[in-house]
Design goal:
Layout lengths: L10 E4 L5 H11 L8 H10 L5 E6 L2 E14 L5 E12 L8 H16 L3 E5 L11 E3 L2 E8 L17 E5 L1 H16 L10 H6 L15 E6 L5 E9 L11 E10 L2 H11 L5 E5 L9 H4 L6 E8 L1 E5 L2 H7 L6 E8 L7 E8 L2 E6 L6 E4 H8 L5 H6 L3 E3 L4 H9 L12
Parallel strand pairs: 4-5, 11-12, 15-18
Antiparallel strand pairs: 1-2, 2-3, 3-4, 5-14, 6-14, 7-12, 7-13, 8-9, 9-10, 10-11, 15-16, 16-17, 18-19
Bound molecules: acetyl coenzyme *A.
Acetyl coenzyme *A (ACO) binds next to β4, α3 and β5.
């Protein structure tokens, strides 16, 4: 593995164990948090980072930029997991911005991911304009609704699901036992979902608490179907707002809600919207086509209060990415994929049907020319090639090719990535 040559006299390289505290300080500085570094954080990082995948830029021995990646699995359309290079903790200290340090760290990491055989790289972008230039495209979107419970039209006498299932309050121990298996089932049916490690469950149930990140123990509920199978799990916290007239005006904020059946999804949303005293429910990050508004007799009670790009994907291997997913339509498409970084561009013939896709290099004339970032936005099924063509971001080399691409690549339900990393 060769490093991108230094143009600035600043070293970009994997950090050593001894450099972890300085790297944490630089990371805090880049994210505009207090530069103070605690022993607890050093211990936590020492346990959880892979040094060879934790990059720093060093100017006169001081860390001035940070970058970290780790192994992740991303669910493709149809439920197969593809190996992903998850990028996180990207910072460049303000004194060293716009000197190409991010560019060098990214080139180093993506080259290593390609060499390892990862199919895609993923990240969550702090700001939209940063990562398109590196071949990433937004592949999932998140919507947050705020439900005005007083106008949902829900029956105030609702006292649990009427399908034979039940909703039970559980505690963090139960969640750590039941959650991982439920999430594994979700991963097999929901494209866009990423794997959750044991550490994720510990962090998100308060077993691991990081300095500077306050923890409020949430309420946890599970939905069990009539046969006792756990099909859904929700975690929510409540504030303590009361009106001046001493009336409870509580907002419930959903931290996590995963369900593997529509019955579980329905029961958990109706439960959260029916807790006495709760007048407002904040949904947290949901897919834009989440059922929530339409589960309410009056969907206008659910107002969209945030909408933003979610998971960004960088395809590292076009052939394996297109062969990993399934297709709702049948047809053939020749794609000219432009990748200025030279990691995976070329001309590919995609033959798709209900049995899967085959993708082979070809010299046939292209139907559609598109950048590798645009392919990422289409790959998870969310974006429309017709829309991108209207924006001038994909070129039709054959009239009607964008419609064919939509018939093959788009999915009935939108992808969703509920997690932060
Ligand atoms: C996955 C995550 O961790 S997301 C978190 C990202 N981190 C942050 O937002 C923390 C605050 N910001 C920073 O640390 C830095 O500004 C970074 C990491 C965003 C950019 O680092 P830099 O070293 O300045 O980037 P670099 O010099 O390599 O810039 C490469 C190109 O991207 C452009 N660019 C970089 N950041 C931005 C931005 N925020 N908005 C628009 N363009 C940007 C540069 O102008 C440059 O363009 P050019 O090639 O046309 O000249």
């Amino acid at each position: 593995m060769t490093f991108v040559p230094a143009r600035t006299g600043i070293d970009v390289r994997p950090i050593t164990e001894a450099e972890i505290p300085d790297w944490i300080r630089a990371r805090h500085t880049g994210f505009l948090r207090s530069p103070e570094v605690s022993e607890a954080e050093i211990a936590d990082r020492s346990r959880n980072i892979v040094l060879s995948r934790t990059l720093g830029a060093f100017d006169a021995g001081r860390c001035v930029a940070t970058f970290r990646s780790f192994a992740q699995e991303l669910t493709a359309v149809g439920g197969a997991a593809v190996p992903a290079d998850a990028v996180s903790n990207v910072t460049v200290t303000a004194t060293h911005r716009r000197r190409g340090l991010l560019t060098r760290m990214m080139a180093h990491d993506l080259a290593a991911a390609k060499e390892r055989g990862d199919v895609v790289a993923t990240l969550l972008a702090a700001e939209y304009p940063i990562y398109g230039r590196f071949g990433f495209g937004p592949a999932t979107w998140n919507t947050e609704w705020t439900v005005d419970v007083t106008r949902t039209g829900l029956d105030p006498r609702w006292s649990g699901p009427e399908d034979g299932g039940r909703v039970d309050l559980v505690d963090g121990d139960d969640v750590r036992k039941l959650g991982p298996e439920l999430h594994e089932r979700l991963r097999r049916i929901q494209h866009g979902v990423i794997d959750r490690s044991e550490y994720w469950w510990q962090l998100n149930t308060g077993v691991v608490r990081l300095p500077g990140t306050p923890w409020t123990e949430p309420f946890y509920v599970v939905y069990r179907a009539a046969d006792g199978t756990v099909e859904g799990l929700a975690a929510y916290v409540c504030d303590e707002t009361w009106s001046e007239a001493k009336q409870p005006r509580i907002t419930a904020t959903v931290k996590d809600l995963i369900a593997v059946t529509p019955a579980a999804e329905r029961a958990l949303w109706l439960y959260v919207c029916s807790v006495d005293w709760v007048v407002r429910v904040k949904s947290g990050r949901r897919a834009p086509d989440d059922l929530l508004p339409l589960l309410l007799p009056d969907p206008r009670a659910a107002a969209v209060t945030a909408q933003a790009d979610g998971l960004w994907v960088r395809i590292l291997d076009v052939r394996r990415a297109l062969e990993a997913r399934t297709y709702e339509g049948t047809g053939t498409l020749v794609l000219e994929v432009v990748d200025p970084a030279g990691l995976t561009g070329g001309r590919f013939r995609l033959q798709a049907s209900a049995d899967g896709g085959s993708c082979t290099p070809t010299t046939e004339g292209a139907d559609l020319t598109l950048g590798v970032g645009e392919l990422a936005t289409l790959w998870l099924g969310d974006e429309s090639a017709v829309r991108l063509a209207a924006l001038g971001r994909v070129q039709e080399e054959r009239a009607g090719a964008a419609r064919v691409a939509d018939a093959l690549l788009r999915t009935s339900r939108r992808p969703w990535c509920p997690d932060l990393f």
